[in-house]
Design a protein that fits this description.
248 residues; alpha+beta; Aminopeptidase; 2 domains; 11-stranded mixed β-sheet; 11 strands; 36% helix; globular
């Protein structure tokens, strides 16, 4: 099994699934677009090939909403240069990582978790996500995708501490997504406890590996839990000063 391929396939499968289920998905000559109204996620264009400038600019012009541009792989450096020349700025750099679940630490009984099952808990999850990350993943998206995505809220002494989600694009690999701790609950060990509990759930359900995409800030936590680095994923946004120029 090529775990680099499995990592990116888990991530992009989630974007495709949510966009098709809740919003709009398009495939245009190697470029994939996922949009959900009243949500800031996923709302992106993604690809691993070299940028085709005429096609790329036409897709951007036709998009009804701003898109994050996500790319990775052998052409990452080239694509970054081209995107910069077109007025796009780096928004997020992430490290693709994986762990073999036989190496998962035992769960520490510090927190409890609750899986999202209904509309009320979807609203709570969406609100906690926005508080943790600063952007919107709508309750409607959670409700319409919860049959295939396991959304969890973490609690400590009855207080919400954060969010996490698990998506299996196949029976072997569990993708960890949307792990965020509320600002008022940070630096208390809750992120590690939430991660380890969910990794153990994934292992008990039969997954052999877990994958995720980490920021520089979060990488240390995942390394401590046994994850290994794989490759870099970068997302870009169009700078305000260049939007009108590209859309002429």
């Amino acid at each position: 099994m090529d775990l680099q391929i499995e990592n990116i396939e888990n991530l992009t499968s989630l974007w495709r699934y949510a966009s098709k289920k809740v919003g709009e998905y398009k495939y245009i000559k190697g470029y994939e677009i996922g949009l959900i109204a009243q949500s800031e996620w996923p709302n992106r264009l993604w690809f691993s090939s070299r940028v085709d400038i005429p096609l790329f600019t036409e897709i951007i012009k036709q998009s009804p909403s701003p898109l994050a541009i996500t790319t990775w792989g052998d052409h990452l450096s080239y694509n970054q240069e081209i995107l910069a020349s077109l007025g796009f700025e780096l928004k997020l750099e992430q490290y693709a990582m994986f762990v073999e679940l036989t190496q998962t630490p035992e769960y520490k009984d510090k927190i409890t978790i609750q899986q999202v099952r209904d509309y009320d808990s979807s609203v709570k999850w969406s609100a906690a996500f926005e508080d943790s990350f600063g952007y919107t993943l709508s309750a409607e998206t959670v409700m319409k995708t919860k049959d295939s995505v396991d959304y969890y809220l973490g609690f400590y002494e009855g207080e919400t501490i954060g969010t996490i989600a698990v998506f299996n694009h196949n029976s072997t690999v569990a993708g960890i997504h949307s792990m965020g701790i509320l600002p008022c609950m940070r630096r208390r060990g809750f992120a590690e406890a939430l991660l380890i509990q969910v990794l153990n759930i994934a292992k008990h359900k039969g997954s052999k590996y877990a994958t995720l995409q980490s920021s520089e800030m979060g990488k240390g936590l995942y390394l401590k839990a046994g994850f290994q680095e794989q490759f870099i994923i970068k997302s870009f946004i169009q700078s305000n000063k260049d939007k009108n120029e590209l859309n002429r």
